[in-house]
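Input:
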Amino acid sequence: MSEQKKGVLSGLKVLDFTIALAGAYTAWQFADMGAEVWKVERYGSGDQARYWDPCVAEFGGQSTLFIAYNKNKESIEINLAKPEGKAIIYEMAKQADVVLENFKSGSIDRLGLGYEKLSQINPKLVFVSLSGFGGSGPLMKFPCYDAIAAARSGFAGSNGEPDGAPMKAGNANGDTLTGVYALGAALMALVEARRTGKGCHIDIGMTDVGMLSCAETIMDYGRDGSTQTRFGNHDRFIAPYGLFETRDGWAAIIADSQPRWASLCAVLGAEALKDDPRYADNAARIAHRDELAAKLEEITRTWKRADLERELLAAGVPAAQVLPFIESYTSDHAAATQATTLVHQEKVGMMRFYNNPLRFDGELCPIRSGAPLLGQHTRAILERIGYSAEQIDELYADGVVTSTLI
Amino acid sequence: MKPLVNLKVLDLTDGCPYITSMFADYGAEVVKIEPPGRGDAMRSRGSDGPDSLYYAYYGRNKKSVTVNWDDPRGQEIIRRLVPDTDMIVFNCAEAHAAERGLGYEQLKALNPRLVYGVLTPFGEEGPWKDDPDYDLLAMARSGLLEKTGFPERPTKFGFPLGYFYASWHLASGMLAAYLRACDTGEGCKVSTSTWHTVFSLDDTFAECLQGLNTLPRRLGNGFPTTNPTDTFKCRNGWFSLSIGSDDQWLSFAACAGRPDWGEGTVYAHDPDRSMKHYFGDLDQQLRDYFAGITIEEADRICQQAMVPGGPCNTVKELVEGNEQVQARHMLVHVPDPVHGDTLQVGLPAKFLRDDEHDDDIAPASPLGADTGSVLGLTGAELDALRAGGVV
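Output:
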């Protein structure tokens, strides 16, 4: 197998304590890039996401979300309440490059597996803690889910009509956005550790990452005390630039120059708007933004979105249909760019997964396996880190490790 | 600690500052190559001239060099910088750069360790590859935008979420490639698209298609299965509640003083609470309940109950006396040569080895301010290039 086929991070080892989504997403990205990800799971039950609905009978009762978030990882099922269980973690820490965890604040220290302890074993370790509010401040001890991070960070407050409700994203984007930010931070610390021989502890909070959504409105406040944070379905500075209703859905349309404005009017047959002094230039159009959007929408409502996209793009006006997921998923573009692929999944057979969006030298990140069954790789990982067959048998017999295989 | 202090990045992107901000905020030397005259598109964001307030943030910690790389002399200037850089990054197809002598193979010949990053809206192949590059258009085609908002209409994000994801993902891929280049001496091209990045983190496929044999619905701030999960209007603002288990619900009901929601009622346990008695019944009771209290009271109840809940903050609440934001150093003041003191969002990744220089932020460089020093040009040579419109 060539280096490329093994993945750009082949040889890297990740000791992964994460459950649920945000941290599991970070570990998933490491796994897709070829790192060996040892997913340490709770003895007897494993990651709580294994039980997230929908769990499908035909898939051996497995959660489809769990499967999606955990491909390319290996599962080792350890009883961390036992000293022998902790000893296994210490052995793994000797060989690992990265530790990921999202236990409740401070729990991992109480388990005796925190950064203080593991960095004594391996000073080069990059140890990433993910949490809702980060490891400091008055909120650190309170529970936080995606929707709460979206609320407290200003992420939800940035979306929607100014006089309407704040709006979170249609997926758990607070989790995944934090997951990808944490991935970047972990890789930075690996770069640093390579240069200096010293690892570090990284503290990432979902609400801190979510606050980047307010980067511009924070500057408005700093300039003149302005507190408006959401601007509806149209851009603040350029018009027309936003979402317009069509006969069969919505389309995004952007006319961000005078020639594009003229082309938009030509395609829509809206010569009267083009010649109206209220819409003469961008400043005038922004001053009458909502009224102009309403007039344009009267026309776009008579168009089918696919026709509108095609005609506008042909006229040089940036536009796209707001595609329902299924149309994006079944698009020729998704097929031509290999957005998904079939992979063998335990207890299921061949199953469709998203390919990682990253390509290295044009090659897709290989998917070596689907999501692991609980404890599927307990024995293999113990062998790899140096336990003998007899020692492993004893650990199984003593209830320190197991392979529940659900 | 600034982990990237030894990393050198050449930034040939335009209008997408998020990729190299990831590097610049954490210590890398980012040299931004900008078109002479107008500079990066973000320099005029929300402004008629090149002095946008927002660029004080988008350009922070970055150097600015103006080079016209449509001009062969400009291309040669960039090629001269390549041997001494670790990474170069574009937000156009490689083919566009290759026509200008700046393709991966061409630059690899000058520096085999080079990591070459490419972000495009839809990828470098496929029927959409030449479509225009706007965050909103890639989001529109991703499926996520259609799923976001109340049932009546989708809601546009107020910030370029697709660019955030794709930029941070690409930056991560480039760091991974750089780590390998440190070991093998060989760099590579790393590429991604905004559309694929957002599309591939949608749960719809796994959750709805594979799991429930259905298609997703747009539910506002609600959730189809685990309830209550929604945003409620209190007397003085919006409050988000996200109950994830029966224990959390029963604790909330107790602290809210509502035994009629507690143990022994039809609302006590799932799946009945979420699936049978939530929509059209309990949801309306909760709306009425929150309408009668303030967000401060709601917050206190959730904290007492130890359940996930919190106010929907906006800038005002984030900036004015927010102890959590202050404790996390998520607001910083950066003096800017054009705008004076600016208030900016801080750095979310906290590297806890020492606190040295963590919040040190250099202001954005004025357009072309570093041209002479970075290129090592002075006097007549620089004047000639300037007169020719190359720099």
